[in-house]
């Protein structure tokens, strides 16, 4: 009789304490994942002060969940900490694991990665895949994403692979695409480019029925991978429309990849436009890449001196802010924190005051050393730039004199040899290059054209080997020793050939351009260039015109650059 009485009392107490949730909250919980904005509107219409304690905490959890699903950044953890504390004591509906998950999401947004990681791992421990596969996959995916942010790529991979396995079984295509992108990024940052390429291609193949932004984001990452693999042409094709197709939150990343790819492809105008947009974007993400691109050797020479100094100063400020935030030391701390959690699988109480002070001291010293190195490097580059300017002045004078002597330009009463180049400090290298280009054109247009292949080249073994390739209609391999032999023969004939080309192109002479110039110097015709380089007629013509543009900064035709090269 006594046992029956206790049982009745227990049932009655449970019934009183476990009332059904408010019907409005039940409806919101059903739509929050698919329609977060609608859920937010419903939640705004509810007066939470009129709710019971249980419903109020459910209301708070749904508010956090709706904001998270709507990509609204979390600004405070006070609400989620209260929710977690409540469901730790009242988890009759098994909501505690999901509360821990959103604790991880909030802490991640606030930059508190160790706390976020602790929440995620505790949530995983409480969520078997066979009971709640959807929540399990989300927790695993976010754990992998967090570890990726912390640069712990190897540690992140198992979590992402687990999430993918569950999502494939659930046939959740959108989540599969998200995690394929994440896994590909992991391999990309580890340098496993072939693996990264495989995952990005799979993500693209699964994006056919998804919004275009998903496919564009995968193509953005694949373009970056192609760039690292050296396939610049494919990278350009993939990145071409990506910045305009990805979601606004991803645009800066797409612009950053595009500026680097177009720079490597030699498309300097496009690279400049993207770098400039990135530098002046209201979103601070990847600003440093915009400065890196604009201050690259290819683009820096095209900038006015005052703008160049301004950009260098702004870039230095960005670097200083970066190191002041102690990012490198934070990663070290997070690695130690993660390793401890992985082995012990329990909550950390606190770090002792002594160890914390030592870590901060180490971080401050590290930041000071890095800042000192950066400042010394900037100072060194400035000194080097001034030295190169003085050397360029001497090179200009020497090159002009050599050209006039080589081509037998004789002074007359109407046409005088141009005056020596002034070494005044107000003559910039760019001014001298412009004057030199004009004088080269004057020599070319005066009728003093190329008179034949120099005897030194004609009598060389390299020239005989070159003729053999021409007669057999064979391509010269990129690693062939013939390139070195041709360079030696040309240098013996014209010792300053390479340095003159560097001077005329402002230092932007690529290996491909230099080899093209060597063949032209050796008298190779455009038709023969097609066979020797294994390129189409259009490509060869484009390369010659591009080289001409780099020298004269205007389209003068491929014949002009051929004549100028043979004059050098």
Textual characterization of the structure:
Helix content is 73%, strand content 0%. The protein has helices at 2-17, 23-31, 36-44, 53-69, 78-89, 96-109, 113-125, 133-149, 153-170, 173-190, 193-205, 212-228, 232-239, 242-245, 248-264, 268-279, 287-294, 297-300, 305-324, 327-344, 353-406, 429-445, 455-458, 461-471, 482-493, 497-504, 511-521, 526-533, 537-552, 558-567. The radius of gyration is 33 Å and the shape is elongated. Mean pLDDT is 80; it is low at 1-18, 347-351 and 409-425.
What would a concise description of this structure say?
With 568 residues, the protein is an all-alpha fold.
SSE pattern: HHHHHHHHHHHHHHHHHHHHHHHHHHHHHH
Uncertain spans, ≥5 residues at pLDDT below 50? 1-18, 347-351, 409-425
Kindly report how far apart the N and C termini lie. Answer: 114 Å
- How much strand? under 5%
Question: Which class of secondary structure composition applies to the elements?
Answer: mainly alpha
**What general form does the structure show?**
elongated
Relative helix content? over 70%
The Rg value, from CA coordinates, equals: 33 Å
Mean pLDDT: 80
Largest sheet: none
The number of helical segments is 30
Record field, number of beta strands:
0
């Amino acid at each position: 009789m006594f046992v029956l009485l206790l049982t009745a009392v227990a049932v009655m107490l449970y019934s009183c304490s476990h009332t059904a949730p408010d019907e409005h909250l039940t409806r919101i919980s059903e739509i929050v994942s698919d329609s977060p904005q609608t859920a937010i509107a419903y939640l705004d219409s509810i007066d939470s002060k009129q709710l019971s304690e249980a419903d109020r905490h459910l209301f708070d959890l749904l508010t956090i969940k709706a904001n998270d699903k709507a990509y609204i950044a979390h600004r405070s953890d006070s609400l989620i900490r209260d929710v977690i504390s409540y469901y730790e004591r009242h988890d009759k509906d098994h909501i505690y694991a999901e509360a821990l998950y959103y604790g991880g999401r909030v802490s991640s947004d606030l930059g508190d990665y160790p706390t976020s990681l602790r929440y995620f791992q505790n949530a995983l421990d409480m969520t078997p895949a066979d009971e709640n596969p959807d929540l399990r996959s989300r927790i695993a995916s976010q754990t992998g994403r967090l570890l990726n942010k912390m640069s712990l790529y190897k540690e992140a991979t198992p979590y992402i692979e687990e999430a993918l396995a569950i999502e494939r079984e659930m046939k959740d295509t959108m989540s599969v695409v998200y995690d394929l992108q994440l896994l590909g990024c992991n391999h990309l940052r580890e340098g496993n480019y072939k693996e990264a390429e495989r995952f990005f291609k799979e993500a693209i193949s699964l994006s056919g029925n998804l919004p275009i932004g998903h496919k564009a984001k995968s193509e953005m990452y694949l373009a970056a991978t192609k760039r690292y693999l050296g396939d610049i042409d494919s990278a350009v094709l993939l990145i071409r429309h990506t910045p305009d197709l990805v979601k606004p939150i991803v645009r800066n990343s797409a612009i950053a990849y595009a500026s680097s790819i177009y720079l490597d492809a030699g498309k300097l105008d496009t690279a400049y436009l993207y770098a400039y947009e990135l530098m002046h974007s209201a979103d601070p993400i990847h600003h440093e890449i915009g400065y890196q691109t604009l201050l690259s050797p290819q683009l820096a020479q095209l900038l006015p001196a005052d703008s160049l100094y301004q950009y260098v100063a702004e870039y230095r400020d960005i670097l200083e802010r970066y190191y002041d935030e102690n990012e490198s030391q934070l990663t070290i701390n997070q690695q130690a924190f993660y390793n401890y959690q992985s082995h012990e699988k329990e909550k950390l109480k606190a770090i002792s005051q002594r160890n914390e002070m030592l870590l901060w001291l180490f971080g401050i010293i590290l930041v000071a050393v890095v800042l000192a190195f950066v400042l010394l490097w900037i100072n060194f580059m400035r000194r080097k730039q001034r030295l190169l300017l003085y050397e360029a002045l001497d090179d200009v004078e020497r090159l002009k004199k050599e050209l006039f002597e080589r081509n037998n330009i004789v002074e007359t009463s109407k046409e005088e040899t141009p005056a020596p180049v002034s070494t005044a400090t107000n003559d910039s290298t760019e001014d001298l290059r412009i004057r030199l280009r004009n004088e080269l054109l004057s020599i070319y247009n005066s009728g003093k054209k190329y008179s034949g292949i120099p005897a030194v080249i004609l009598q060389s073994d390299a020239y005989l080997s070159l003729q053999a390739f021409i007669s057999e209609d064979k391509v010269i391999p990129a690693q062939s020793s013939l390139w070195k032999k041709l360079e030696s023969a040309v240098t013996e004939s014209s010792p300053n050939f390479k340095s003159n080309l560097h001077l005329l192109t402002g230092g932007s002479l690529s290996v491909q351009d230099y080899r093209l110039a060597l063949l032209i110097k050796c008298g190779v015709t455009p038709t023969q260039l097609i066979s020797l380089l294994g390129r189409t007629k259009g490509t060869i013509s484009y390369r010659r015109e591009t080289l001409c543009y780099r020298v004269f900064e205007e389209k003068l035709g491929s014949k002009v650059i051929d004549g100028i090269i043979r004059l050098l």
